[in-house]
Amino acid sequence: MTPSRVRLPRARLGVNIDHVATIRNARGGEHPQPARAAAIAAAAGADGITLHLREDRRHIRDGDLAAVRAATNLPINLEMACTDEMLANALSFGPHAACLVPERREERTTEGGLDVARLHNQVAPFVKKLGDANIRVSLFIEPNREQVATAEAMGAPVVELHTGKYVEFVFAGDEVGVAAELKRLKDAAEFGDARGIEIHAGHGLTYDTVRPIAAIPQVRELNIGHFIMGEALFVGLDAAVRQMRKEIDAAREGTP
Ligand code: PXP
Fold it and tell me: Please, which of 135, 142, 168, 214 could form a disulfide with 251 given CB 3.0 to 4.6 Å?
């Protein structure tokens, strides 16, 4: 007898379009446009558009926010640092969601989660002010109980678990590391979900690494950007988003 498959509720895919802007900005002009990528991602089955307005504007620019909103009806998830400037931007733009992330000028990408346990007093007012403006706040954190418990204490409705270390272990061929990191991700997801926090995950995910993360029952949303945009160079953005959606759906349906 074949074992019955466990079907999980569908997980949302937020497509991060930052790196369309990276290519545009390499020449300083208007092409390719992140807003056009948002429209294509929406048509291909994305459930949301994620973008990170960084302090140095290295990819997304201020004008992209309104352009993306005009191009699609999908919910917009604004990744942002805890600064007064970004808070003002978020409050005036009013995205569906804001994801608070650490930001250092010298980093190439968001390296590690926001240490909310250490930065509690700095982060808590941002959670409150964004929440008061009806913006759903998520905290991008390392997958451990201390960080999740602090997020709960701050009243954050969502956490996004950083999957970067897990992906690094996969590509290093470190099976012990992969198993340990998956255990941490699962434990943090269970711990948060049991406290009524919605669980998201993301960073560095690819077709080859997304399934074990999407198969964590409590994960309701995945935010993926760099790999999708890289694949889009070869197969087109529509096909790359559709393939990522397939991988996620297969994991949720328990398909081998
Ligand atoms: N989630 C968060 C909070 C991020 O900061 C990023 C990177 O901007 C991502 C997800 C997506 O990561 P990647 O581009 O590696 O898929």
Answer: 214
